[in-house]
Write a structure and sequence with these properties.
By secondary structure, the protein is of the alpha/beta class. Helix 1 links the parallel strand 1 and strand 2. Helix 1 crosses helix 7, helix 3 runs parallel beside helix 4 and helix 8 crosses helix 9. The longest helix is centred in the middle third of the chain and has 29 residues. The N and C termini lie far apart (35 Å).
Length: 266
């Protein structure tokens, strides 16, 4: 899809990944509808981006009805980048019912509902693209990650299924799946260290993958060093082996550290 002149709705715009994605799209001549919870940060981001005409719509996607209202308020949208997300690390019993609902609504329900609202107008125009920011956690289950895994496995499955439904309508659907991201994003913000030997990627590489997914209509792009990608593919194909490998002390300690550092962001 040609990005120049298109309008893109980007959720989670003021986070580290969101800012990098916004900059990459604006550099391609995209007019952005930026959404997030912080109205002041959205306005500042819009003012700093290349181009003009960028709009801001504050929204808390954890609230019932917020996703559908956001799409309605955004007007005509050629591209959706569903980037907003909440951490879901920790034992399931560590989450209140409200925190479970928030994670499911932001990470999975909201992208589904936004896609549902955009399908008909995109189909009528015969073009459009939807990008869902998932995670390698949507391929590989991990200790203390049952809830987060659920949302990302679900988001990946939804997007791949939706792609088959919309391919004949001229609408592209892509999954962009980062691994551990340094410098910005939920993992970087936690201050936790990745497991030894797996490496990290950058927000800019994630943003470049979003642009490539749209322009080349890629089904799925994993953004991580090769050792992470290989481990995720192995886990998807042989979950039993992966589960045994992650039951060791180092993997569990890393997961427990991450969960503890993200507990205040649920």
């Amino acid at each position: 899809m040609q990005l120049t002149g298109a309008t893109a709705l980007l959720t989670g715009a003021t986070g580290g990944l969101g800012r990098a994605i916004a900059e990459a799209l604006a550099d391609r001549g995209v007019s952005l509808v930026l959404s997030g919870r912080n109205a002041e940060a959205l306005e500042q981001l819009a003012a700093e981006l290349p181009g003009s005409g960028h709009l801001t719509i504050p929204a808390d996607l954890a609230q019932p009805g917020a996703a559908s209202k956001l799409v309605a308020d955004a007007g005509q949208v050629d591209v959706l980048v569903a980037n907003a997300g909440l951490p879901g690390t920790g034992l399931l019993t560590d989450f209140s019912e409200e925190e479970v609902e928030r994670a499911l609504r932001v990470n999975l329900e909201s992208p589904v509902l936004m896609a549902r609202a955009l399908m008909e107008p995109m189909t009528q125009r015969g073009q459009g693209h939807m990008v869902f920011i998932a995670s390698l956690a949507g391929k590989a289950a991990s200790p203390r990650g049952s809830l987060y895994n659920a949302t990302k496995f679900g988001l990946r499955g939804f997007a791949l299924g939706l792609r088959t439904d919309l391919a004949s309508q001229g609408i592209g659907v892509s999954v962009v799946a980062p691994g551990f991201v340094r410098e910005a994003g939920m993992f970087a913000d936690s201050g936790a260290k990745p497991p030894p030997g797996l490496g990290t990627t950058t927000p800019e590489r994630v943003a470049a993958a979003v642009v490539r997914a749209i322009e080349k209509n890629k089904m799925e792009i994993a953004v991580a060093p090769i050792q992470q990608r290989m481990a995720a593919h192995l886990a998807l194909a042989t979950p039993g082996i992966s589960s045994r490998a992650q039951s060791g002390g180092m993997a569990r300690r890393t997961a427990e550290d991450l969960a503890a550092r993200q507990s205040d962001k649920r």
